[in-house]
Amino acid sequence: MGESDQIVVDRITVDLVDPAQCTPLPTASDVLHRPDQAAGAASVLYPSGAVLTAVESLLPGRLSDTGLIDALTACDRLRALVDAKQSELLAELAHRDPDGEQFLREEAALALHLAPATTQDRLDTAAELTSRLWDTFDLLRSGHLSAVHARILATATVDLPDPVAAKVQAQVLRRAPGQTPGEFRAAVRRAVAKHHAKSQNEKHRAAAAQRHVRREQVEDGMGWLTLFAPADGIETVWTAVNAWGTKTSREDQRAADQRRADALVEICTAALALPGLPAEHGLRPSVNVTLNRHGFSAVFMLCCRRG
């Protein structure tokens, strides 16, 4: 029992009692005659087949508002138990057929009506939860965490070293039961950044080393220009194009995408006229456009003129 399971009364530390340990399992009579109490008990008891039987027997129309909320809570915790059991089964399946030679993965995909890629994601998550993310699995099995939360953590830590994954898990699980999936995802992202900053920086540097610009000519005198660069550079280009392509008059009937495309060309055209433009062999770059005899396809030629 940790610090969160204790309170201080008159300077005396008192252990709190786990409601699940002192709440009796609802009987058939409770479900029939005291449905609210039965729902309340089901919402705090550890999920089990017996709890499922009690919840399944509840009649929604006989529950008060509070009873409805308790019953919904109980259903959520029972769903987490089933998700945990499915993770156990998937982990065992992956263990029995690690190389896929027995086609158990394909059979699982068919049985669950899932795409092969989705099934593989489930298998990867199950392997993580039933091994180094056992604390997360334990919370899932006890109904304190949803499968969505568990999947978020497993996906975020799958490529992390074991010690780092353990630190991330320990940090985020403390508040996880009270967080929405969005809040939990943000917490996981912060924890990964905190405990794995060096690796993240190395990955960014490696990716940034691959930055490039590529052009491709297509039909009808058009072409593609692809820029792969660090996110801050992309934002700089996007901000400039957006600002330069702002609509300035009612007569301008171009769509926003068209204005942005024209703006990028205008910015680069202006750049070609700037003094100090790097020259090669004493020649200054310029652009000539040559149309073929059909008048459709354009060939863009980078030529030079003397500065």
Automatic annotation (TrEMBL):
Residues 71-291 form the DUF222 domain. It comes from the Bacteria. This is 13E12 repeat family protein. It comes from Jatrophihabitans cynanchi.
